[in-house]
Amino acid sequence: MHFAIIFRVLGVLLMLFSLTLFPPILVSFWYADNSYPAFLWAFGITFTTGLAMWLPVYNLKQDLRTRDGFLITALFWSVLGLFACLPFWLSESVNLDFTDALFESLSGLTTTGATVITHLDSLPKSILYYRQQLQWLGGIGIIVIAVAILPMLGIGGMQLYRAETPGPVKDSKLTPRITETAKALFLIYVTLTLVCGTAYWLAGMSLFDAIGHAFSTVAIGGFSTHDQSIGFYDSSFIMAICMVFMVLSGINFALHFFSWQERSIKHYLRDPECKFYLAWIAVASIITISYLYFTGTYSLFDSWLHGSFQLVSVLTTTGFATANFSLWPSFLPFMLFLFAFMGGCAGSTGGGMKVIRVMLICKQGIREIYRLIHPNAIIPIKIAKKSVSDRVVEAVWGFFAVYIVCFMLMFLILMATGLDFVTAFSAVGACINNLGPGMGDVAFHYGDINDPAKWVLCFAMLLGRLEVFTLLVLFTPMFWRR
């Protein structure tokens, strides 16, 4: 383990992150909300710490190994969450203790969208902007962005990219060089954000709200500048725009890259994961809309509007709200919530287990049924007419098993802290899937639950953002052996 080079990388990344505190400072001056001291202190502490980590080892020239990449990825998200909470902790206008401040910052960076803050409409603009910006940075993955500059420091970045990128096909690259890949991803991300923000602004949002909601929509984060979330605007046009960009952001960004490069949508139509993802959105929307209408919950138009919006918001793990879906009749709340476990496509900003894994699990289940009928038959699992190796299928099943075990353990711990069944179940599910809103006592915010439960949920957010194994591997003795 190259601890010196790990400190060097962390130092550089912390110094880079400290620069992202200047936009909230400018917002504070622009709106004269007097919150800039908290950001100035946070900048000073973060930059100084990063500089202190970088200076002693700045002249080292070594490549990162795979284990170094895993450790940096996990450490950086943990350390970044720690330093990102400083403005929340130091700001008198928010008045959060350390646990709540850390919970809020990790929720933003992991694009979970679970909040402990209430009365958003009365908060300073700089704090509101900072929350949205955290999600935007977390959505693209700050480490993936930083990979573009690591080669200039003499550090190989492929190990970081592989540790950070979600999904079972981590070795696929958009361009031959990892630096160009990071730049391509970043360009697509920025373009989607600009188009989304412009659409929101033209639809009637203020410029401030349009920018903030574009950040959290493309990041599939779910933070809003209003307590009522997207429902604050009471606009079907804004809801439609939001749905379009939530769906787009839940698709593998590699498909956006190839489609833009070739000026064609054929890649979306040919990709099995994308088709599986869009098909489930369509089917689940029809079920939700029909049930809301035939139970008399809403009119036909409102059933379509609210039903499809909440389904897309939950399935993509965004977490925006126009209605409290936890109060919808019968099985609907649980059906919507379970779709969050599938989440978005691999290589997207969405959370959950990822569509490709769910698709492979379904195909494996079908294969096992066929094997009962034809025990000696060789039945390969294929995606896009290409056979998937048994090693990949085993890895997916292993991921699924560990995912469920982690969920169950954290669920039991939360119940042991005193939370009721529905609240504990939905809180763990919402955090490990990076969804945000849950049911029961966490349907609107997490401010009322106890501190031990919040720490468990912070761990759940990191597990979800780092795809479980990237974090859990650090707890194995084998990882630390030479």
What does this structure look like?
The structure is a single chain. The chain is mainly alpha-helical. It has a domain at 3-178. The protein is built from 23 helices and 2 strands. A two-stranded antiparallel sheet has the order 1-2. β1 (381-383) and β2 (386-388) form a beta hairpin. The radius of gyration is 22 Å and the shape is globular. It starts with a helix and ends with a helix.
Low-pLDDT residue intervals, each spanning 5 or more residues: 146-162
Q: Residue share in helices?
A: 55-70%
Mean pLDDT across all amino acids: 87
The helix/strand series, from N terminus to C terminus, equals: HHHHHHHHHHHHHHHHHHEEHHHHH
| Number of separate strands | 2
Distance between the termini: 8 Å
| Rg for CA atoms | 22 Å
| Estimated share of beta-strand residues | under 5%
Spatial strand arrangement across the major sheet: 1-2
> What global shape is seen?
globular
Count of separate DSSP helical elements: 23
Please give the largest β-sheet: 2 strands, antiparallel
Q: Briefly note the structural class of the backbone.
A: mainly alpha
